[in-house]
């Protein structure tokens, strides 16, 4: 059994995600095996908010070169979470917007 902190790994802090935070849309990096229901329950239990929808995407790792050696960054999974209109915003993102 996974805890909510095993599902939500970290927030994605980019210029684009911070612009959407004002509209109650937040982006998180999540566990590769997590589904939308687990992500919804994890966000609701950690931040005490109500989630309207969850969209997920698998991001493939980029190919990187170090001289003659070719490697790959790790693949990851992102989740874009939209909160309901009645829900309060997540305080973690408040100071960054």
Helix-strand blueprint:
Layout: H1 4-7, E1 8-11, H2 15-21, E2 25-30, H3 36-47, E3 51-59, E4 63-66, E5 69-72, E6 76-83
Describe this structure in words.
With 97 residues, the chain is of the alpha+beta class. It has helices at 4-7, 15-21, 36-47; strands at 8-11, 25-30, 51-59, 63-66, 69-72, 76-83. Strand 4 (63-66) and strand 5 form a beta hairpin.
Concise overview:
It is built from three helices and six strands; from the N terminus they run H-E-H-E-H-E-E-E-E.
Features of the shown structure:
97 residues; 3 helices; 24% helix; Alpha-Beta Plaits; globular; alpha+beta
Structural class: alpha+beta
What amount of the residues lies in strands? 35-45%
Q: What is the CATH architecture assignment?
A: 2-Layer Sandwich
Low-confidence blocks of residues: none
Calculate the mean pLDDT score and round it: 92
The beta-strand count equals 6
Number of domains: 1
What order do the SSEs take from the amino end to the carboxyl end, as H and E? HEHEHEEEE
CATH fold-type name: Alpha-Beta Plaits
The shape is globular
Q: Percent range for helical residues? A: 10-25%
What is the C-alpha radius of gyration, as a whole number of Å? 15 Å
The count of helical stretches stands at: 3
Strand order of the largest sheet: 1-2-6-3
- Cα separation of the termini: 34 Å
Main sheet attributes: strand count, strand direction, barrel closure: 4 strands, antiparallel
CATH-assigned homologous superfamily: RRM (RNA recognition motif) domain
């Amino acid at each position: 059994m996974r805890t909510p902190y095993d599902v939500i790994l970290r927030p994605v802090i980019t210029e684009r995600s911070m612009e959407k935070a004002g509209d109650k849309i937040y982006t998180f990096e999540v566990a590769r095996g997590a589904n939308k229901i687990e992500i919804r329950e994890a966000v609701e239990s950690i931040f005490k908010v109500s989630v309207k929808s969850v969209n997920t995407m698998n991001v493939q790792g980029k190919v990187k070169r170090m001289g003659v050696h070719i490697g790959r960054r790790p693949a990851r999974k992102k989740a874009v979470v939209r909160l309901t209109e009645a829900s309060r915003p997540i305080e973690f993102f408040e100071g960054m917007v």
